[in-house]
Amino acid sequence: MAELLAPAGNIESLDAAIGEGADAVYLGLKSFNARLRTTNFAWNQFEAAVNSLHRQNKKIYVTVNTVSEERDLERLYRFLSYLNKIGPDGLIVQDFAVIRMCQEFFPELELHASTQMNVASASAANLLSKEGFKRVVLARELGLEEIRDIKSKTNAELEVFVHGALCVSESGLCLFSSFLGGKSANRGMCTQACRRFYTAEVPGGMDQGYYFSPCDLQLIDKMPDLLDAGVESFKIEGRMKSAEYVGSVVSAYRYVMDHYQENKKEAVAAAKRMLSTDFARNKTSYWYNFKSVDEGIDNAGELILNPKQAGGTGIYLGKIDMTRPGPQDFKMALLKGGAYDPDPGDSIRLHKKDDTGRESHKVRFLDLDDKGNRWIDIPAGFSQGDSVYLLQTKSMSKRYPHVLPNDIGKYSHQPGDEQLPILDLTAVGKNELNYFPEGLYIQVSSIEDIFVVQAGHPVRVILELNSTTIPDLVKQKTVLPLSKKQIILSLDPFCPAGIEAETEKTINELIEIGFKTFIANNIAHIQMLKGKGVNVIAGPYLYTFNRWAVSWLENQNIGAFVSPYENSRHNLEEVYDPQFRQRVLVPIFAYPALFRMRFKLPKAYDFTFFSDKEEVNFKVNSTPDGSFVMPETPFSIIDKADFLASNGFKRVLIDFSKTRVQKTHFKQVFQALLKKQILPGTSRFNWKDGFYNPEKLENYRAADERRQETEKLKKAGRDFGGKGRGALNGRGSRSYNAKTSGSKGHGTPKGKGRR
Q: What is the H or E stretch that residue 25 is in?
């Protein structure tokens, strides 16, 4: 029997999901999940939910779907130990560290691969199945035939998103939010850069729009096909949505699942009527209507993108025309320009006119003035000119039986103070890394660019495998300026079922003609390269933000690693002790792909350069392999190459992926490397400050407040002898620039690099 899986962002949504017939719910706790901005569950609420749902023969899954830095590992270990005691039905995970810890210490915890793991093929599903996973949540950029193909080739359960918000970027590969200020989507801190309003340079002038804000997924009419295909679980997105939304969507999909075999057409029609109250964005079936991969790449952009659609959701209610004080310290607002007048109990969403903030709100008060104008309460922080949208009307609200008991006082378990056993990575063996010499590596996306960058005498050139380079390499059309030994081939991080067989065939042909070293950027690549007698390097998209993730990859017979673009200096040094730094290639220059989209942009997108409200510039490249958004300002720590080498990181990468390498530009970059100079007009990305960390930020604020208080006391003649620190400055919304404090696990037994 297929499972209907619903989001439970809070207790009310949990009640609605179960009340409308969901078979299972997924939820997050206060950390290690990709929706940190939602309410999430307290420890006792979660424990009570597990017990209550199990009594009803319902299932509950916990999201542990973010990557962890080295300093997080002890806390992660304690969290997993806690979950092991409570006994949810599965963990939805992204980080390889969670796999490694569960294999070592908590084998009874059931693992589900998060969509953030970017599983899009049978090869990836089968490798994870062998590693103990029961289920994989497939990437959302797949068509019906691809899902059928995966199902026919794997024993792993398949979970598929069928309704809710989409990411414009391929699952798990978005770096945009992280690049803007360290708020990484891989850390549950996404600021939804895709929903923003952008200004584009078009022929004849400038244009504006929500160019990368995708429509919402709705697959209600595809449910019969997906059910017949054997999909085990159907997932509704929406841990940040209201309980009313969750209830109405669950009821519609429940109806189709229960009645489609009686009369498919009528069941779908009835369910669509139930969904008519979903006032979210325009709906799309995305990849589900295409007969071929090429057709999807050519046309999916038209189905998912609508630049005139506001980045938010709902029916437009107008803009705030005036505000005034209201009852109980609430602000009241008068709306103008919409076609519906909201009432108390309705759910609305407010958007700041400068696109700096959005907030959902349930209307509590209505006041009619002498002129008949309707004033409603709004959250603090919104004012004249801000837009308002309707999400849900009061009439849609229902009262559901409570899942949690009234008294949850007896549920008192929390993570303990267990110490994570020490884990050492595998020592480098003699001649083990002959394929991975010290020195400069340069990555390019075309064979022509190899001829340009060879002037820098790199020890290795990394060549991206794409629709342009593959035919040339396989047919050996071009005489390469370097030997095959000096060229490393990098595989694309998105490996969908539609090109899986072709990708493996290409790999085999390239091995046959003499290429021996590959960079794997997807779990599928690991499976494809096994037993082929080649050298495999884990690329930057096989995220190695901690040593337990590195250890899991070591167990896949991978012995060298490219540090992720998002990584920081401090975390890099914490992950790899000096004796293991020979295994690491550190990017020191790149135009990192911020969005990677599995489609060409619509024809109306007649631009290359665009900017945000802060006048930060970006460029987009639409190709037969998909579309890529990159910063116009590259990431560079090229002046740190000598510092890295002195600290044992003697392999560095200059990455020109997705760009055409101009001789003058290459010379400028290379000269900065030789002269150990800061390259002007570049970004440090997260190298100095690391990921955005609200806890650390709060500590710095508290320290600054103490410093200011000390200064006041000094001025009053009471010198406490302490020296106050200066004001802290940082990048983006962060106001700190100090190092983070790492955390190593201690205790016994001592872990091993390989199992």
A: strand 24-27
Continuous segment of H or E residues that includes residue 331: strand 331-337
How far apart CA 455 and CA 664 sit, in angstroms, is: 12
* Amino acid at the residue 716: A
DSSP state of 423: B
Which pair of tokens denotes residue 4? Answer: 């209907």
CA distances 86 to 46, 59, 62, 516, Å, are 9, 13, 11, 47
In 3D space, the residue among 232, 101, 225, 216 whose CA is nearest the CA of residue 168 turns out to be: 216
DSSP-assigned letter for residue 72: G
The CA-atom distances, in angstroms, between 404 and each of 46, 53, 121, 385, 595 are 9, 9, 38, 41, 40
3-class DSSP state of 604:
coil
Q: Are 450 and 486 in contact (CB under 8 A)?
A: no
| Phi, psi at 191, each rounded to 5° | -100, 10
Residues facing residue 202 across a β-bridge: 205
Cα–Cα distance measured from residue 688 to residue 730, given in angstroms and rounded to the nearest whole number = 10
Q: Are 441 and 458 in contact (CB under 8 A)?
A: yes
Percentage of the chain with pLDDT > 70? 91
Residue with tokens 């046309």: 299
Compute the distance between CA of residue 578 and CA of residue 585 in angstroms, rounded to an integer.
14
Count Cα atoms within 13 angstroms, Cβ side, for 694.
9
Cβ-in-10-Å burial (0-12, 13-18, 19+) of 633 comes to middle
Please name the amino acid found at residue 541: Y
Q: Shortest CA distance to 732 belongs to which of 182, 181, 192, 357?
A: 181
Rounded mean pLDDT of 71-81? 96
Cβ–Cβ contacts within 10 Å for residue 513, how many? 11
Structural contact between residues 97 and 574, judged by C-beta atoms closer than 8 angstroms: no
pLDDT tops 70 at residue 725: no
Total residues found in the chain within this entry = 755
The single-letter code of the amino acid at 219 is L
Handedness of CA 692, 695, 698, 700 (dihedral sign): negative
Dihedral sign (CA 444, 450, 451, 455): positive
Instruction: For 331, list phi and psi in degrees, rounded to 5.
Output: -95, 135
Helix axes 43-55, 11-19, angle to 10 degrees: 10
Give this prediction's pTM. 0.87
CA dihedral 712, 718, 722, 725 (to 10 degrees): 10
* Structure token pair of residue 272: 């669509």
> Alpha-carbon distance 133 to 2, whole Å?
18
Question: Is the model's pLDDT at 556 over the cut of 80?
Answer: yes
Distance from chain centroid for Cα 127: 21
| Single-letter residue type at 205 | G
**Three-point CA angle 397, 366, 14, nearest 5°:** 25
Rg (CA), the chain: 27
Angle of CA points 433, 438, 442, to nearest 5°: 105
| Whole-number pLDDT of residue 231 | 98
DSSP for 338-388, written as a single string:
-S----TT-EEEEE-TTSS-EEEEE---EEE-TT--EEEEE-TT--TT-EE
Residue 697 has pLDDT above 80, yes or no: no
By CB neighbour count within 10 A (0-12 exposed, 13-18 middle, 19+ buried), where does 329 fall? exposed
* Residue 749 preceded by cis peptide, ω within 30: yes
Q: Are 41 and 49 within 8 A, CB to CB?
A: yes
pLDDT above 50: residue 752? no
Residue 727 has pLDDT above 60, yes or no: no
